[in-house]
Amino acid sequence: MSGLAAQMKNFNKGVMGQGNFAQARRHVPSPVPTSQPSPAASTPGGSGNGASSNPNSITKKKKPIKNNVVYSQPADTGMGQYIMTQVLHLVEHLKEVEKPLTRLQLEDFLQKPLDSTMVRVLKDHEKLVYDPVSDSYAFKPLHNIRSAQQLLTHLQASTTAQGLSVKELKDGWSGALQTIDELEASKDILVTRTKKDGQARMVWINDKSLNVSIDDGNSPQS
Fold first, then answer.
1. Domain 79-139 falls in which CATH fold?
2. What would the mean pLDDT of 24-31 be, rounded to a whole number?
């Protein structure tokens, strides 16, 4: 019986101890919560170190700054500029001679053979006409006119009254101005000229059938 009494005594002491513990917990003041950082402080650029004070926040590693500089190839390695310079010389030469020249004649002018790149550029050039039969190149003017008869034929076939620009005629025809002066003197064409220096600007065909002599009334009557 003494053993049972001892067990009851220990049980009561445990219960009383738990009650005191619960009572003690009710009287312990709650810990003061730490102030949480404001959203502005935790955002990049905000004041304070809110991101580091939050134990639940995940520290992000800064990404390395990429170099946005693009290193492109040189705009010109020298060879491209050399080829275009040679092509320009050939185009001007063909414009001056005003006749087709073969590949051998062009090579003689340059004093060097034409490589495959230059040949391709010449064939595709907008100011040149290539003849595969004779393997020759000719300058292509704005108007295929290089003689007085060709000029008259072109003006007669024109269906507009706008006339033809002398500046365009001079493109690829070195004798344009002299021929215009001659056709104007023979009254085959009409020419407008600048007031400052008298340079020809525009030309038209002169339809002589429209030239009608008018009697001024002073002619003697029969």
1. Arc Repressor Mutant, subunit A (1.10.10)
2. 51
